[in-house]
């Protein structure tokens, strides 16, 4: 039976308890068994039937004829050892895909996203709401590895729920957006991202006999330097692009020239065209440096963990911003700069061909800035959790009849 009129105040203790429990029990991407079970239990307690799809969960609130709104939260965590000092800090250690025991922490706020969406769902499912229409509460696994949204789509998401007219999601950050505030913008909001692995091949030799080698470490090092010129000298200055070499790996002893050397890169852009331009330049440089060093075997180049561009619909974003100003007051609704982080959220919206709006939620105390993925990442529980739930409710009500 649906709950009677609820307010955010009346369920705050429950909402905070859910958040603390999720924070204490994080799970790695695509391994979120306990988290998924807890979400299902909370939905069932609201009288909402959970529908497990592709490692995620969808709960649907039906309130008669009207528009359909989909709201998404991600729920995976990261292999980070928590150092926040919180009384509900994670002490979890789990086995990763390689069978190695690693610490796990909600270092990106996905626990807060999930608790906010559950709280919004409980408010929207109560009888006090007079709007009609359908609301899908979608809880997604595996955002950190770019697997979760694709997994749900591959498992038939678009055929298992009614198509949404609009899709929403949000992300907590502890940067320039103060807690209690939301920030959004129309158009390109979060960048594309693609990881690239390049393996250069040479000829091994003793360190005292370099003339008998083709040195893949020199080859890779020259490529690293040259690749820093892609954005500086090939991408239009009016466009945005980033090429980061995060890993260079080759050799085991200082007096041995190895047979191979590997690079791992991360590429970001605000357009697919710029991303493709950068990726083509990376391949060109890798091949050219192999030729320049006299290599006989061309490099292996693999792209993986690719994230799409997050591009907010102009009209939808305007309506959401208006709803936020009505709910929070103009001083708590900020215009965001484009973010250089990336998301797989738009995979879900694009699968339905639905317009969407994605916004960020401030979680930092004044004067405190701790980046996501840090072992010290700890959003202020309140008013951040409350604001996250209220933002989702305000956005949904704006589009329901």
From TrEMBL:
Residues in coiled coil: none
Positions bound to Mn(2+): 108, 110, 144, 171, 373
Cross-referenced InterPro entries: Amidohydrolase, Bact_exopeptidase_dim_dom, Peptidase_M20, Peptidase_M20_dimer
Cofactor note (record): The Mn(2+) ion enhances activity.
Domain of life: Bacteria
Domain Peptidase M20 dimerisation: 194-288
A Pfam family that the UniProt record links to this protein: Peptidase_M20
GO molecular function, one term: metal ion binding
Cofactor (UniProt): Mn(2+)
Keyword terms of this UniProt record: Hydrolase, Manganese, Metal-binding
GO terms under biological process: diaminopimelate biosynthetic process
SUPFAM superfamilies, alphabetized: Bacterial exopeptidase dimerisation domain, Zn-dependent exopeptidases
Annotated protein name in UniProt: Amidohydrolase
Source organism: Corynebacterium riegelii
